[in-house]
Amino acid sequence: METNNNAPFWIVTGAASGIGASVVRAVRRSGAEVLALDVNDELGVVLAEQTGAHYRHCDISQPEHWQKLIEFLNASRSALGAPTHVHLNAGIQIAPPDAALSEYQLEMASVERYRRMMGVNVDGVVFGLQSLLPLMGEGSAIVVTASLAGVTPYAIDPLYAMSKHAVVGLVRSLAPTLTKRGIHIHALCPGGVDTALVPVEQRHIGVRFMTPEDLANDVIGLMGEPVSGKSWVRVSAEKPRFVIRAPGDRTK
């Protein structure tokens, strides 16, 4: 695929399915370059073939994978340029979707499941920011996919809620420093979205789900949002997104 150095360059994690894949498709339709990162190579390769995006295997919970990515980006700088839009999107819940809801509770969480979830949901954001921010210039933007569970209780999966609260706190706390560099950062906090992440049993208790495409539009919109460090909530496709402010936040 030929590249255009004048076009925006997006990096999307958790890109092979769900919200990430919808963002990749929408961004490619605009003509921008996209580097899609995921561990599901089968879906990632298909997505790249369908959209013309670049795909790389990347376990975002592993610092060495980020190091290899940075080496690739430095080697490809003449073709891709520096990232201008970063969507740190990958996320998982504490148990597999087909597990009983009882397995999502605190007392049932194995060490392996806990560390994997925190690795994807929290470490992946931290390592991604540490790796990519040195490459990003003034005017760049970052959107982190958090969750409504990052600003409200989520009794179905308390540890997932904890991980998303951590991400929201990081976004809010980094914003003042990044603003000085001319970089905006936002947390997108959706309610239920129809992706493979949703517990199967939760689908049978009357929850209404948005589509990944609904949220892709929000991600793209937030990349141009000038007020940084906010937690943007969407609870349905019919209602606009809104901000849930941190205590003491008086900024507009």
SSE pattern, N- to C-terminal = EHEHEHHEHEHEHEE
Which spans have pLDDT < 50 for at least 5 consecutive residues? 1-5
Side by side, the strands of the main sheet go 3-2-1-4-5-6-7-8
Q: State the name of the first-level CATH class.
A: Alpha Beta
The total count of strands amounts to: 8
The CATH architecture name reads 3-Layer(aba) Sandwich
Content of β-strand = 15-25%
Percentage of residues assigned to helices: 25-40%
Average pLDDT metric = 93
Q: By CATH's scheme, which homologous superfamily applies?
A: NAD(P)-binding Rossmann-like Domain
* Helix/sheet category: alpha/beta
The major pleated sheet works out as: 8 strands, mixed
Domain count: the total is 1
Number of alpha- plus pi-helical segments = 7
Radius of gyration: 17 Å
Termini separation comes to 42 Å
Shape descriptor: globular
CATH topology: Rossmann fold
